[in-house]
């Protein structure tokens, strides 16, 4: 009995040590261990020249209806209250880290993407682009020709370099697994390095919301 108590006490001590040593971020109702953004990447982002492709926040309110109207949010999935709070935190983190962003911020015309962009960067700094609806459609029923056309156009968009000394931010949608930029978690960021028109782009890193928030 004494041995069991000693083992139990030892396990509790280890758990407490882990919880103290590792920074934790609470997001979307659960707690995850966070690691900071790589310092070298952070330094590069401060110099500009990248695209930050961000998926919109958690959208669990409502459903995308068959008669979906981009002008009518009641026909779409919309941000949860937690997602709204997190979008504000994302924008604050990017500003706090002194990462320069080009304006306007580009957003897909869905309500959840526009709202994410507005909460993070200010409504006056957001411009919608209907092209990103094509990325949303990739998760639906599209032909192989339509898929290929969308991905070719995507390459043309993402290979263009932003204004000198800034980074372009795009708030849009996740991709199906194995296509384009792949699956992206809510408010996850894919960091891209455009190589100029006709030369494509590189995927440099993927940054979760918790990693943004834990970086000092």
UniProtKB/TrEMBL annotation:
CDD domains (UniProt xref): HP
Origin superkingdom: Bacteria
Matching InterPro entries: His_Pase_superF_clade-1 (IPR013078), His_PPase_superfam (IPR029033)
Protein name in UniProt: Histidine phosphatase family protein
Taxonomy of the source species: Bacteria, Bacillati, Bacillota, Bacilli, Bacillales
